[in-house]
Amino acid sequence: MGNNYYALVAGLPDILLEDKKIVHSSAELRESLREEVQPADFKLVELLYMPFDHQNLLNLLFKKEEEWEPRGNFSRDHMEQFQDRKNYEVADTENLPVYFADFLEAFHGEESFENYYAAEQELTHAYYRFLAERPNAFIQEVARYQSVLGNVMVALNGRKHEVPYDNNLVGDDEITAALKKSRTRDFGLSNEVSDIEHLIQIFETDHLLDRELKLDRHKWEFLDEITFFNYFTIEKVLAFVLKLFIVERWMELDHEKGKEMFNQLLNDLEAGFQFPEEFTLAYGKK
Asked: Looking at residue 145, what DSSP letter applies?
């Protein structure tokens, strides 16, 4: 049995807002959740933020002058310990996820990475493998979904522009094998990826921003679907975090669209706080 967070889930908008037109950052949400959820559940929360740590780490390792991403779990001072082999050997790696520590060991060891993108791909691959091994069905499903979605989009783009893409696919399974070999419209994946035709239709959207919006709505609907029966569990919180990432992205890409999506997030939450009918019938209350 998982933990239930009745007050937390019902109060998520209050955690995020001073008023409903201003989005508090997902970094602030994480710090609030640190105090609100059980330690094991908070580890799951942190896992969702790890791609921002990937970004910060790779920028340091490849000396890219990029702005620090505040949504990462680890501070700049902590991450700077990993910039070179000498400092890494005496660095504190105790709290790093295993896959992250393994990547650093490989990077500073005998294994070499040709460039930033090769390192990014290896780290992403390791991340998805790590998520797939977590004892939480939501985390596993998110890992598979993100991996499949990313690979399908890479393959469609490569096929459209007639450029090699095999080495840009993340993972090694029957889906990546089909994406590499098949020349049919759906890569022969109609059984393995039930919404492959919908993804192809999204990709065929001419306007890039419209395509991105459709993809993010697809992600949003996926999160709704896999948490439909999670009423006050950590999965509901995790889905909220991922949706907030989407909102933050659109605040940067298109502020008005971002506000619209945030309002949708609030409306979804408010609607979702109604107890399900079976709960009402069983316990005589809402």
From this structure: H
Residues 9 and 236: their CA atoms lie apart, in Å, by 7
Instruction: Tell me the two tokens of residue 118.
Output: 């090769």
Distance (Å) of CA 223 to CA 54, 141, 277: 23, 10, 21
Considering all CA atoms of the chain, what is the largest pairwise distance in Å, rounded to the nearest integer? 64
CB 113 within 8 A of CB 119: yes
Residues in the chain, overall count: 286
pLDDT tens track for 172-216 = 999 999 999 999 999 999 999 999 999 999 999 998 889 998 999
Sign of the Cα pseudo-torsion (192, 198, 200, 202, in order): negative
Question: CA 180, CA 167: separation in Å to the nearest integer?
Answer: 9
Distances, alpha carbon 279 to alpha carbons 174, 213, 229, 273, in Å: 41, 35, 11, 12
How many helices (H) does the chain have, and how many strands (E)?
Answer: 15, 0
Contact criterion met (CB below 8 Å) for 58 and 66:
no
| Amino acid sitting at position 174 | E
| Among 209, 274, 264, 218, residue whose Cα is nearest residue 240 | 264
Residue type, 72: G
Using CA atoms, how far apart are residues 119 and 117, in angstroms rounded to an integer? 5
Burial class (CB in 10 A: 0-12, 13-18, 19+), 252: exposed
Backbone angles phi, psi at 4, to 5 degrees: -110, 135
Task: Give tens-digit pLDDT for 217-252.
Answer: 999 999 999 999 888 899 999 999 998 898 888 877
**275 in Cβ contact with 231 (< 8 Å):** yes
